[in-house]
Amino acid sequence: MRYLPITGADRGEMLRAVGASSVEALFSDVPEDALLAEPVDLPLHAGEFEVERRLSRLAARNRAAGAGPFFCGAGSYRHHIPASVDYLIQRGEFLTSYTPYQPEIAQGTLQYLFEFQTQVCLLTGMEVANASMYDGATAAAEAVMMANRVTRRSKAVVSGNLHPHYRDTAATLARFQGFALEAGPPAPAGGEDLASRIDADTSCVVVQYPDLFGNVRDFSELAEAAHAKGALLVVVVTEVVALGALKPPGEMGADIVAAEGQSIGNAMSFGGPHLGLFAARTRHMRQMPGRLCGETVDAEGRRGYVLTLATREQHIRRERATSNICTNSGLCALAFTIHLTLLGETGLKRLAALNHAGAVSLADRLGERVVTPAFFNEFTVRLDGGAAEAVERLAGEGILAGVPVSRLHPGAGLDDLLLVAVTETADAEDLDALAEALK
Amino acid sequence: MTGNSHDTVSGDLGLSIEEPLIFEQDSPGAVGVDWPEADAGADRLGGLARSGPVGLPSLAEPTVVRHYTRLSQKNYGIDTGLFPLGSCTMKHNPRLNERMARLPGFADIHPLQPESTVQGALALCREVQRWLSVLTGMPGVALTPGAGAHGELCGMMAIRAALDAGGAANADRRRVLVPDSAHGTNPATAAALGFEVVSIPEDERGRVDPGRFEALAGEGGVAAVMLTNPNTCGVFENDIRRIADAVHAAGGYFYCDGANFNAIVGRVRPGDLGVDAMHINLHKTFSTPHGGGGPGSGPVVFSDALAPYAPVPRIVGEDGALRLEEANGEAFGRMKAFHGQMGMFVRALAYMMSHGADGLRQVSGDAVLNANYLLRRLEDVYSAPFAHAGPAMHEALFDDRALRDTGVSTLDIAKAMIDEGLHPMTVYFPLVVHGAMLVEPTETETRASLDRFIAIMRGLAERAKNGAPLTEAPFHAPRRRLDETQAARKPVLRWQAGE
């Protein structure tokens, strides 16, 4: 077996050295009737080519986004990833390293995490960011729990335009941790009154920017209303490229930003792995979940980096930790950092502008059926015949037209709404094809 | 600045090159990606256009490639050498798995595409479920958890949901029994779900004493036990059936932390031992890359009793007409935005198919043999607290008794290993052993690599006894010891302009 270097001769000598008669004898502490005498009922080992052939056949049964016009969004976005990003993250010293608990031989990982944390702060307009989380939904749930800790309250007021999967992820924790999550109904064209729902028990208000339906709006007044009642404002971002074009949540008074960072540097990959971004205010730093990388010096006074403030974490605090989280999305964070470094100030702004221009161009083609007044690269279209039916029909014609709202809000009476995302990967022909097909 | 870099003009030494932050290499006008300017059309941002700069630096592609290449050279990976980090399982990461995960049919598909266009992806998820189910002897498989600790939450939430379904009779059932040797995530998970954590001390064999466990379980209010097996003392809990029976008799469930499943894969099925739920760290047993700290993936296998409470989404239907079930009345809820770490499923399946049922047996056999080999070849110079208690499993646990009176600590040995070109083992864990050194060689090391490790470790023990200055090591790494106290006292968590 190509991955297993111990030879039969090695095995014999090593067994003699340990004083065992066989490998099986080393499992003598296992109850005898639980030891399998034969391999389990699964295929036997296979060579590299054979594995490649079988998996390639499965891959070929999926329709890749690059095969035709593609407009799906709703929390996962198709953007171009520069070749050097994928090359660099596959360098073995990054790919096959561990969590940087031995900082002297992990400065590569630690320095990019420090760069990553800084980039996340700059994009969101926040003061401090962690080293990443599982995905945007888990980051949002952690944001609510952090707000509960900071305010010592236990009720979150949630926008009806928050991605329902994010809402449900937080609701799962709410159920078991005993805090309340009050979510309003979806409001596709906007117009929610969240401020009036804030009371003395409210730990935070959770909004999405741009929201599920693509709406962008200024939350500055909502932030003031929340702060006036001692609550925090949590802003969720599922399409982080938007922050290259839009006023950052930090400038609106957000206290916590929880975002999905997949859009920069990471493939959609059927929904995972993705990259949770988490940013907050310095005053709440010690209540943050997840790993943090910090600057320090070594014994010779040279600048270096370490994981820090670990006293919040489970491996030190055990049952008193701020969360049970033990990992981050290290390699996805590296891809994000490299891609954003390649983009730089100019590249990010151009990328964001191309996304917006493409979306505006499509919206112009679709005219009055667009229900979203202001948006970045995703908006909602009303289709009288039903969105899910249209998506199925267009998939048959080679166009992945977007995400029907009914897939996310089944039974909510929103079956005629379609979420359409336009990134830089869609060209004018793609826009024409979709507009034509939706006529 | 002082140190070992005084004999070159630059201060750099060969391949050891200092590398500033990207923010310190800003070259306005440079760009690393060529995007055109968008056509000037109507702005529909609703008056919310960003007014100022983001503050990102500008670098051309060659500068960026060189920057991250240099950073990579400051890292140690499993590709570099032996990485004996106990309980973390740093084994070879086959590159075939990377290639497979990048096939456009897996990487370039959207989680909410029409199900008719992703039948191959859903079939792959089903296949991963089949392998995990057969290997563990457990009927239910939840794929969504994003990492091992997330899997723990999943398993324990299913247990809470099952208890809640039992009604008022279970209202006071809130005690979770956790051995002191457990990973920190176990008590953190239990506490995060509102359970009361009850510690179980290890006995002199590094195991849970079954009589004591039965007494604790008999005190009532038991929701679950969280047990790692093989445990973090490096031995198999040979009373596991009594423990399972006791927790079941008390009305609770058996959660197994599957972090060490790699020690028994292909040879022992947890389902045959009375386990009700277990997470599997795909990055440990099935070699998806650790990536410097994630992304992980932590599928959970369930017994028949708990399977109904598994989270959504679930994959249902027949091959060719597979569907995602997004809501289910018994499911405890949703854990993540989408269906799980697909990229990790592809890698893990490529690994499982490569080894097959026969190869996976050899994986656990060689992993256990290698650990026992290290244990027996080092126990005369490093004290091994549980070496008398039977064979080790896939890791060998030492403590610092043998270093007593040398002035050298476990940490010093770890740092001295860095100078020798080795990654240190896990240190000071499990907490139940003073100055613990937990060594996990894995099955992908050669005999020569193991012998080199043994020679170095014996040599370091000798040097420690002879008063070598190990307390200052490492001398030859990209950095000397870093001041972690300063980092925590005055946290600097981001670069700031003008500093």
Describe the structure in your own words.
The complex is a heterodimer of chains A (439) and B (499). With 439 residues, chain A is of the alpha/beta class. Chain A folds into two domains: 68-81 and 345-437, Aspartate Aminotransferase, domain 1 (Alpha-Beta Complex), CATH 3.90.1150; 83-337, 3-Layer(aba) Sandwich (Aspartate Aminotransferase, domain 2). Helix content of chain A is 36%, strand content 13%. Chain A contains 13 helices and twelve strands. Chain A has helices spanning 8-18, 48-60, 83-89, 92-95, 107-124, 136-151, 164-177, 220-228, 314-317, 330-366, 387-396, 405-408, 428-437; strands spanning 128-129, 155-158, 180-183, 202-208, 232-237, 256-260, 276-280, 293-297, 303-307, 378-382, 403-404, 417-421. In chain A, strands 1-7-6-5-4-2-3 form a seven-stranded mixed beta sheet, with helices on both faces. A three-stranded antiparallel beta sheet of chain A has the order 10-12-11. In chain A, α3 packs antiparallel against α10, α5 packs parallel to α10 and α10 crosses α13 (428-437). Chain B has two domains: 98-351, Type I PLP-dependent aspartate aminotransferase-like (Major domain) (Aspartate Aminotransferase, domain 2, 3-Layer(aba) Sandwich); 357-478, Aspartate Aminotransferase, domain 1, CATH 3.90.1150. In chain B, the strands form three sheets. In chain B, strands 1-7-6-5-4-2-3 form a seven-stranded mixed beta sheet, sandwiched between helices. In chain B, α4 (119-136) runs parallel beside α10 and α10 (342-378) packs across α12 (447-465).
